[in-house]
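User: Okay, second chain of the day. Same drill as before: sequence in, structure tokens out.
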Amino acid sequence: MLDDDDVPPIDWEALANTYVVANGKGGVGKTTLASNFAGLVAADTAADADIDSDTGNVLLIDVNGQGNVGRDLGYRGTSIDDEGSAFYEALRTGKPLEPVSGVRPGLDVVIGGAHIGAAPDMLQATYRMQQHRQVLALAVCLAPIARHYDLVVIDSAPENPPLQQIALSAARWMIAPTRSDRASINDGLGSISRQFQLVRKAVNPHLRLLGVVLFGSGSASKQIHRRARTWVAEELGDDAYLFDTIVRYSEAVGQDARHHGRLVHELEEAVASNPNFWDLRSGRAGTDTTVVSATSVSVAEDLANLAREILTRAAEEDAA
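Assistant: Same drill. Structure tokens below.
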């Protein structure tokens, strides 16, 4: 354990509305959930208020060397995609984050990518024996701007404990998506649970596990869900962490979202513009016609229900 002098002062109240989406295993819907949760809340708030396009009320932070938030939001490879360079510099210097504004109405983004993958090595070299300072790098940069936002969502890196610790150390609430198979629950939840306990004990006693989301599961697979609930209880000691909402499986929706750079509720809106079957078959719709999966309507409903459940549970936990 390090001396208190190694721990920088953090405005923990400013981070009270910060959620980290985390799992120790990849491919469990983590980035999809983070992007869509942030995007849904931003869109909902923007629809109810006159929000300046240069000012967001929701902040999404991509703490991932893969930078897949950029695929979900469609900015990958564009002029705003610096692959995490500005984010890296903020972590290195300890200066406040400077998000990219207006990626969607009401939504600002701290861009991730390859530079963030190198951040743990840089922090270790910069702060050497100050291990707590390394882990709290994001909290230091986020706290000064967090009060500007109603909601902050952090997408963390799978299978990368140093980046996971940096993300967990800046959050109040952890949400853990998982597939329903035993390997995802035992390996993914087991791994992130260990990082959660380490961070909570060492640097961030305010961190709480808000819940576990079954992601990409058949909506009618009752037996599978019962088994998954049992395995979650074995791993975490209680099945009460499971959210009621299950995000159903749809490979077509996942492909459409990343291909078009749209969030699922944006795909839902595009379904109404799909050409009818006969026009497609006859060729009258044109070769450049965009067709998106109609299943996006159901998946968008799941994600909207989950967003409401997340915010409701957090409010109840705070009030308890």
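Residues 4-250+297-319 form a domain with the Rossmann fold fold (CATH 3.40.50.300).

User: Thanks, on to the next one.
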